[in-house]
Amino acid sequence: MTQSRHIFFMALAVVGMTTNLLAEEPLPSWNDSAARRAILEYVKSVTTEGSPGFVPVSERIVTFDNDGTLWCEQPMYVQLAFVLDRVQLLADKHPEWRTEEPFRAVIEKDLPALAKLGAKGLTELTMATHAGMTDDEFENIVTDWIRKARHPKFHRPYTECVYQPMLELLAFLRQHEFKTFIVSGGGIEFMRPWAKEVYGIPPEQVIGSSVKLKYELRDGKPVLVRLAELNFIDDQAGKPVGIRQVIGRRPIMAVGNSDGDYEMLEYVTSGPANGSGLIVHHTDAVREFAYDRQSQFGRLDRALTEATSKGWIVIDMQRDWKVIFPASPPSPK
User: Fold this and answer.
1) Beta carbons of 209 and 119 less than 8 angstroms apart
2) Fewest beta carbons within 10 Å, which of 26, 32, 63, 154?
């Protein structure tokens, strides 16, 4: 299928999903649980003129974490799988990597060691394997990889391992004139090539970790070159900073799934606009994965402990979702 035809059919699918959502009850892949009711009540409150909780359209901003919130992050972060493949591909040219960390951990697929890297280590690996190339070259590599790579458990493209209930939530919020952003510890240039097709979120509404870029002329043409130097880590306390720097105002809703989202949830829900915080709790070992406090990836401990006292809505995947993944996946072809 050509790219233009794929985009056309994707557009039809989005229109069809929107039409169904308008015709049916909202969030059809959600069970009629306390979490679903709380979401619907909150949206009704902030979008109903005259309501004490009414929020003008210009201030209806919601931020979503990506890994473990919008798509599957087990058995490892998707970008880590991408970097692992790149390191393996380049390892023969760098024999020193077999004894140097963090490359040794990647080559030997030492998941406990890789889990300790965090967003900073992941970005450093990305820098080492992609420094010197242009941003367009990197985007082409990501686009090609995301099209071909498969999830080791589900044997589907990673972009087919997105959560149908969250796609519905994104669509539902946009119907009510929310502006949706991704705020992730993952690399911004890794997410931007496919976020629009998969989530309906354009590149300018994706916030993530980044490396520094340098303007150069190559063969007389201006390009942006990726440097082996960190620019920003958009994780934990970095998330509110990234939100302020890019969006310029405090969102009224934040959705996450791990302690890496704690500060974002805290920042959003402590503002003057009665913000709402949602946490996806992975409790379904059959349809997806069950993990929280002891997980190597996407650990949910402090945020889960404090969720009730802070008024955050905990979405129980097993209890609250009728389905996990889309039946007709929004995967780039």
Assistant:
1) yes
2) 32
Q: Are 262 and 236 in contact (CB under 8 A)?
A: yes
Q: Which of 183, 188, 202, 155 is nearest to 79 (CA)?
A: 188
User: C-alpha 202: how far from its chain's center?
Assistant: 13
Residue with tokens 């995947």: 317
Distance of alpha carbon 1 from alpha carbon 7, whole angstroms: 10
* Nearest C-alpha neighbor of 17 from the set 332, 329, 232: 329
Least confident of 35-44, 106-115, 194-203, 264-273: 106-115
Distance CA(105)–CA(189), nearest Å, equals 24
H helix intervals, the chain = 3-23, 34-47, 78-90, 103-107, 111-115, 118-130, 135-148, 164-175, 188-199, 238-246, 262-269, 302-310, 317-320
Cross-strand pairs, 181: 63
328 pLDDT tier (thresholds 50, 70, 90):
low
Q: Is residue 221 within 8 Å of 239, Cβ to Cβ?
A: no
Virtual CA dihedral for 201, 203, 208, 211, nearest 10 degrees? 160
Cα–Cα dist 125/36, whole Å: 39
Q: Could you give the CA distance from residue 177 to residue 314 in angstroms, rounded to a whole number?
A: 24
Q: What tens digit of pLDDT does each residue of 49-86 get?
A: 999 999 999 999 999 999 999 999 999 999 999 998 99
Go through the domains of the chain in sequence order and give each one's CATH number: 3-75+162-320 (3.40.50.1000), 78-148 (no CATH)
